[in-house]
Each structure stands twice: as structure tokens, then as C-alpha cells.
Amino acid sequence: MSYHSLKEICKICKNEDKEFWEVIRADDCCERQVSPDESLQDMNKMYEAMLSADASYDKKKRSASRLSGGDGALFWEYVESGMNLSGSFMGKVIARAVCMAETNACMGRIVAAPTAGSCGVIPAVLISYQEKTGIDNKKCAMALFTAAGIGEVISQKASLSGAAGGCQAEIGSAAAMAAGMTVHLQGGTPQQICDAAAIALKSFLGLTCDPVGGLVEVPCIKRNAAAAEAAVSACDMVMAGIKSAIPADEVIEAMNEIGHDMPEKYKETAQGGLAVTESAVRKTRPRTRI
Amino acid sequence: MSIFDIIGPVMVGPSSSHTAGAVKLGLVSRQLLGEPVTEAEILLYGSFLNTGNGHGTKQAIAAGLLGMKEDDRRIPDSLAIAENAGMKITFGEAHLRSAHPNTAVLKLKGAVCRALEIQGESIGGGRINIHKIDGLEANFSGEYPTLIVHNVDQPGHIAEVTSMLSHKSVNVAEMQLYRESRGGDAVMVIECDEEIPQEALKWLEHLEGVLKVTYYSPWKEIV
Fold first, then answer.
1. Interface contact flag, B1 A152, Cβ < 8 Å
2. Strands (E), chain B
3. Within a 10 A sphere around the Cβ of B183, how many other Cβ atoms?
């Protein structure tokens, strides 16, 4: 990798007069020995897979545990009624995030971004943005490089796995990636991309991974909506001129420390927090295991 | 790690470790067997055993054994597909001590009566580790062509194998060595960037002191 921190990416942007996403793509070309066009095409395939996952939502589907399904459709209906307080754009972002996460829970095909549990965050923002502004798929693929670069730095400096770092590492990282991606789409600078990632990630520091029954459903699905909203608000804050008091790299380092110190029972083991609440235990009564 | 591990993979949910990684365990096991699977006893351990039902782990492993990849939309229906294809699958609990929490033991039989026992681990993000083959230490990812040589622990075998690879212009990506005791059974696990030609594997098998040669190809078509 030619970069190990977000600060380094910004430095390369400045020294080589490149955009943030171009630095990430250049590195991919080097790592996988592919041309810039091939790299962009491969990312475009990821975006197309996101679009296809978004379109494949089936409101009748329920997960094997029967804990989830159908909520995304409820939210779409509410957004379409115009009664929702979150407005048209944010309403669609929330609806898409919930739908995608439900599709995942029901064994549909999704794009892990960065993980399957957090797969709704990035496409919810990106697809809704494309719908609002009419940008083409290629522009969306470019934006995904920005998201990937932020995720890559987090994976190097901390972790993207709930089992290693708690939910902050999954949903927090997805929020940070989506926030930076949205600033890119709005024409922000590399520094603003990093600031938005920092602001979004700070909102999720300390978040535990304590899913009911050990399954990627409760609270994971609705957290996708929360992270997508946080990404949009972080982007708007930055574009309004607000800066992050703590630089993104330091926020990531803090997340790493918190993840290390987090008790095991809050790291995808289903032995603490929400997973052991009275209702969780009742909803996941023992079944035949095999 | 590539950025397509960050944005990606495209996969059938719900879990990269319990679903996508489980498909990969099945697929790598099928490739290791080197022929279609006719019988499979799948034993689950730890979190695979406890949360596998909610994660579709059983369907995922079966899908891999049928040759499906992690993004195959047929994964949820794999058990029925296996039944129609005449693949006999049974499930049970693996009784292991201090194994990785997401471990499966696969006891496979193939059409040409080959048999293989594989202990694999899903280590996160859809990546796996083949921990043991027929009870012997292996530890490889299934990302690369992999050569596993069991030999007597005596001087010269590593040189024989690596000079063969050099002769065939095969680059070594990773190499691991284990032995039970001095002069006892030893194993080398070599992950390569290129495929190793069949005749080179045959040649290895006939060397004195070489007990067994196992080869894994990620790309070989199995029909």
C-alpha cells in the first residue's frame, strides 16, 4: 500500500495533484497489476451489484430466525406518504438502508461494504444521491474508491470486524466511509473528506457488537439506517464549513484502543448487552441446533 | 487484502464469516477432493454449531460442495439442489478441543471413491483457513494453488520440492514447515502464484521419503 493514513492520502493528493479517489485507484492498479480503466470497471461492477441488491428487495421475505423482514417496505410507504419528518432524501436513505440490511438477513445477495452486517449504509446514501442528482454509474464508482480508501486505512490502523473491535468497527467504519464518499460527491476537498469521516466515526465510538441470538439482525439492521443518516449529516456539516476537532487518523486510533479494551462479551459473542436482555432470550429460545 | 475486500465481496448474506466463509470452505474442500462430492458428513463446531441455523451455514457449506461461489443466488436452496443431484449430506456436531469458534469438519467421498477429511475455519471477512487435511496440519487460505507434501524428516526434501518449482517457473508465495519429531513425519505447505503441472506432482510422488502429495487448485474445473 502506498498509504497508511488518511493524512498520507491527503499529502499524495497535494504532491501529485490528484483527487482522493485517484490515489486509491492508483494503488489498486499497482496492487492488482491492472490498468486504471480495468480498476474503474471492477468498481463499477460493485456499484451495479449494489443497484441489483437494492432492486431485489422483497417485502414478503423473512429471515430464518423470523426476527426480521418487511420493515423497509413499511418505511418506504411512510416516506411516500410525505408524513415523515426526515424529508424526502433522508427518508429514502433510511428506507434503502433498512431494505438492504433486511435483504442480507434473508439470504439475499449484497455487497459487503465493508461487512455484510453494515452492507446497507454506503449504497443507501449513494443510490439515493444518484437518484437525486442524476449522476452516472461511473461517478458513483469513483465515489466508491473514496469510501474504499477510508475503509482501507481503518483496516490497517484498527479493524473492520465486529468480533475484533465491536460494532464501531463495522457500522462506525461504514458511516465514516459513506461520509467521506458523500463529501467527494459534493465536491469537497481531501481534507473535508477526512473531516467528514472523522465526524461520522466519532458518533459510533464505543459501540458494542451484541446481536440477539448472535445473528446479523437485531440491532444490526436498524443501525444501518442510523449510520447512513450520520454519514449524510457529517457531510453536510463539513460542506457548511465545520471541521473535526480531532483529525480522522487519531479518531481511528482511538477506535482501535477502545476495541482492544472492549470486553469479549461485547464482541460478537452474544454474551452481553442486548443479546442477553429478557426479550432477546425469549425471542431466541433454544431450537434444535443441527 | 485488496480494496475489493473493503468494497466487496458480492455475497449472499447474512454473514461474511458464517455464510460467505462457509461457502468457501465447501468450495475449497470440493477442489481438494478434485472430483464431484457424492457423500458429505458435515460436522459443525462452536459458533457455526450454535448460530449456523440463523446464518444459513449448512446451506452455505453444501453450496460450496456443489461448486457454487459466495455470490450464487441458489445458496439458500442448496440442500434441495444437492438432493436432486444425488449428493448425500448429513449434519452433526464436531467434538473438538479448543478449535477456532467457526470450525467445520467435512468428511467427503467422491465419485471415484476418493475420501478426504478436512477441518476448516472461517476466520472473518469471508476468508478461511484449511487447518487440517486427514488429521494432518495444513493451514492455508485457498487463495492460491497449494502443494502439501508429507515426507520423512530428513535432509534434502525441501530442496527437491523447491528446485522442482524453480524448474517449472512456479513462484512461491508462502511456505510453512512442520514436523512431529526429529526424523519423524514432516509436512511442507507451499502456496504458489502459478499452477503446478500434473507431471511434476507425479514426479514428486515417486521420490523416496515422500509419503503423500496433495495438491489444491483454486481454478481447476471439476466435472
1. yes
2. 10-12, 37-45, 88-93, 102-110, 115-124, 127-133, 136-140, 146-152, 172-179, 185-192, 210-216
3. 10
Residues of B in contact with A181 (CB under 8 A): none
Which stretches of B63-169 are assigned E, i.e. beta strand? Answer: 88-93, 102-110, 115-124, 127-133, 136-140, 146-152
Q: Is residue B10 part of a domain?
A: yes
Q: Which ipTM was obtained for this model?
A: 0.95
Residues B128 and B155 in one domain: no
Partner-chain residue, chosen from A46, A105, A213, that has the shortest CB–CB distance to B8: A46
Interface of B with A (CB under 8 A): 1-4, 6-17, 19-20, 44, 47, 49-56, 59, 71, 73, 75-76, 91-93, 124-126
Res. A289: pLDDT tops 80: no
Q: Which domain holds residue B194?
A: 146-216
Is there a single domain that holds both residue B129 and residue B22? Answer: yes
Tell me if B140 is assigned to some domain.
no
Q: How many domains does chain B have?
A: 2
The architecture of the domain spanning A20-283 is Orthogonal Bundle (1.10)
Tell me the chain A residues in contact with residue B20 when contact means C-beta distances shorter than 8 Å: 112, 116
pLDDT tens digits, A15-58: 999 999 999 999 999 989 999 999 999 999 999 999 999 999 99
Average pLDDT over residues B71-93: 97
- Closest by CA to A210, choosing from A118, A272, A280, A255, is A272
Q: Do A28 and B50 touch (CB under 8 A)?
A: no
Query: CA-to-CA distance for B165 and B153, rounded, in angstroms?
Result: 20
- The answer to whether A59 and A73 are in contact (CB under 8 A) is yes
Q: What is the pLDDT of residues A77-119, one digit of tens each?
A: 999 999 999 999 999 999 999 999 999 999 999 999 999 999 9
Chain segment A174-207, per-residue pLDDT in tens = 999 999 999 999 999 999 999 999 999 999 999 9
Judgement on whether residues B72 and B127 belong to the same structural domain of the protein: yes
Compute the nearest-CA separation of B149 from chain A (Å): 29
Cell triple for A113: 461494504
Compute the mean pLDDT over every residue in chain A, rounded to the nearest whole number. 96
Interchain CB distance below 8 Å, B16 and A112: yes
- The residue from B134, B160, B185 where one domain ends is B134
pTM above 0.80, yes or no: yes
Q: Are A202 and A173 in contact (CB under 8 A)?
A: no
